[in-house]
Amino acid sequence: MFHDRKHAAHLLAEKLIGYKGQDQDAVVVAIPRGGVQIGHDLAMALGLPMDIIPSKRIKDPSNPNQSIGSVSLDGVDILPNNVGIPQDYVYHQIAMIQRALRHQYEQYVGPPPIKHLANKILLVVDDRMNSASQFLACYRSLAKHLPKKIIAVVPVLTDDSLRKLKEENCEVVYIDTTCHSNLNDYYTHLPNVSDEEVIQLLHGVKCSV
């Protein structure tokens, strides 16, 4: 159980202490918006620069509460067994979401999106991982920049998410895993993070762009 995102970031920083001061080799890359608070605190604790990698789920057209996959700036993860969903819908959603994500990146950081990540160790941070799909979309986007290594950094994730990340040969740093999907219960205090808070947090650290 974590008090809040700052508490979770403190526990993760202890696990990542070996990267402290390696600002020429490692970059914290946070998934907005909840991941930015943890990413900010990690970057400050470890003396690392920071970037972001926005992502969003693709809604199931027949059930908006379900998703059929996730999209990042230029990475996609489509879940299996999406029988009956028109391909035109999927392609349209990917294009529309990626335009929105590029706008979000520019709103938070400014153009151009994501650079200077080649040969870097990327600590990709979120505040929890109910599903691996969003991270995998980010992973595939970041992999195109030819980093030295991509490490998933998350306080708590589901057992299924951990299994899927290991299937992708992705290193994972975490505090706890669970079979339950409602990971909000792992936090005593988990408020929503606003756009204004994200911008303020990013201005408080050395950005990698």
Q: Which key features would you list for this structure?
A:
alpha/beta; 8 strands; 5-stranded parallel sheet
Description:
By secondary structure, the protein is α/β, with parallel strands linked by helices. The protein has one domain (5-203): Rossmann fold, CATH 3.40.50.2020. Helix content is 36%, strand content 24%. The chain is built from 6 helices and 8 strands; from the N terminus they run H-E-H-E-E-E-E-H-E-H-E-H-E-H. The protein has helices spanning 5-15, 34-46, 87-108, 133-143, 159-167, 195-203, and strands spanning 26-30, 50-52, 55-60, 63-72, 76-78, 121-125, 149-158, 171-178. A 5-stranded parallel β-sheet has the order 2-1-6-7-8. Strands 3-4-5 form a 3-stranded antiparallel β-sheet. Helix 1 (5-15) packs across helix 2. The longest helix has 22 residues, at 87-108. The N and C termini lie far apart (34 Å). The mean pLDDT is 92.
Class per helix and strand makeup: alpha/beta
**What is the rounded Rg?**
16 Å
Q: For the record, what CATH class applies? A: Alpha Beta
Task: Give the overall shape.
Answer: globular
Unreliable stretches covering 5 or more consecutive residues: none
The biggest sheet amounts to: 5 strands, parallel
Strand coverage percent: 15-25%
Number of helices: 6
- Give me the side-by-side strand order of the main sheet: 2-1-6-7-8
Distance between the termini: 34 Å
Give the number of domains: 1
Which quaternary structure do these chains form? single chain
CATH architecture: 3-Layer(aba) Sandwich
SSE arrangement, N to C:
HEHEEEEHEHEHEH
Please provide the count of β strands.
8
What is the name of the CATH topology? Rossmann fold
Q: Helicity, in percent?
A: 25-40%
Residue-averaged pLDDT:
92
